[in-house]
Amino acid sequence: MSQEVEFIEPMGDDAGADRASTLFTESFSEEPMGVWAAPGRVNLIGEHTDYNAGLCLPIALPHRTYIALAPRADTRVRVVSDINPEEIMEVDLAGLAAGDVKGWAAYPVGVAWALREMGFDQVRGFDAAFSSCVPLGSGLSSSAAMTCSTALALDDAFSLGFGSTDAGRVKLIEAAIKSENDMAGASTGGLDQNASMRCEAGHAIRLDCRPGLSAVESVTQEPVDFAAAGVELLVLDTQAPHQLNDGQYAERRSTCERAAALLGVDNLRVVADQVNGAAGSASTSNDSSEAVPSAAPTLDSVLEQLTEQARVVGGMSDEEIERMTKRVRHVITEIGRVDEFVDAFGHGDIETAGQLLDASGDSLRYDYEVTVPELDVAVDTARAEGAYGARMTGGGFGGSIIALVAAGRSKEVAQKIADAFADHGFGAPRALPVQPAAKAERIR
Known about the structure:
Helix content is 43%, strand content 18%. It has 13 helices and 14 strands. The protein has helices at residues 13-28, 106-117, 142-157, 166-183, 191-198, 215-218, 248-263, 268-279, 299-312, 318-346, 350-366, 373-384, 410-424, and strands at 6-7, 34-43, 55-56, 58-71, 76-81, 89-92, 126-132, 203-208, 219-223, 231-237, 389-393, 400-406, 430-433, 441-442. The protein is globular and about 65 Å long.
């Protein structure tokens, strides 16, 4: 039994703008003020670290969500998507509270609500039509593509003045995050929105999520040229159902927050910096026997301290303690892997970069436990087919993997994964051709 892989090509700005504009006109019987677009993202490394004040390394996808929008004089919002063009969702912003809007409309409506909650009363109602080629449920952040495109459109439509600068975009990112967390009820730590709003073409962003950093301090543009390195980044959507609002994401986030409290720090980044700074290569090894300053904590000593605190102060069971220490081990080592990957790839050391991807994937699988069988089979197959490295990407519990493969081998490896899926009784995966793309912008 065999099944062929579908490769999802980017829509292209002209086609995307045309589709969104046409849908707008057909739905609302007028022309839109303009068309804006925001990309999905794929994270190269640094997973489940954003809400731990850690480091991430995402790139923007060439696959984008397009929004045609026109402001209204009242507080009414009407939104429509080309997924179901016959259904126009209507909401009034007046008196709206967190969680009041259900379904996909919560994301764009939530952005306007969030901006008003943040004090921007000039934001009123609007009509909007969406067209997207970011695969839904793929772990490639279709939700952030929607909220960020909406935020940028509302910024223009109501003359907020944030979209033209990187620092200003951070304010729009806040609204996009608030929409997802508070209106849609889907926990997010900010990686997705920062990538969609701030990535430059041909670059990844090294995103530092420590609180209190300025826009300049929080992001560094890191050149990523796969072709020059003789490799391709295969992004493969397993099409396993992807859910982040079923409590799994929130449970891990709360576990990390509780662990930080037990360790007496504001967040796990504080401990990660101490451990990774002391052990240097702690991200790829749990061996604490390396020569380090005696006063500096090692990963093992931190986990021992956490175990004691969890037992004595937290009153936790052995099973709960084991689960917590595994989660913390992932976060600490994953934060360390980000800069190691930047250094390795930047120096053309693709072997080491691939090993770091593998280490990240194994940590997500065994310590953070956010994979599903489809993700595991896809990663294992990519590695068996000679990928330099492969891992799940995104929040997990479904979604996509990435594999760093030799130039010209993406389709071959993707097909091998599809064959393995058929052997396991899984549905056909789909793949995306990916190069680091540009951030959200106005198209028309």
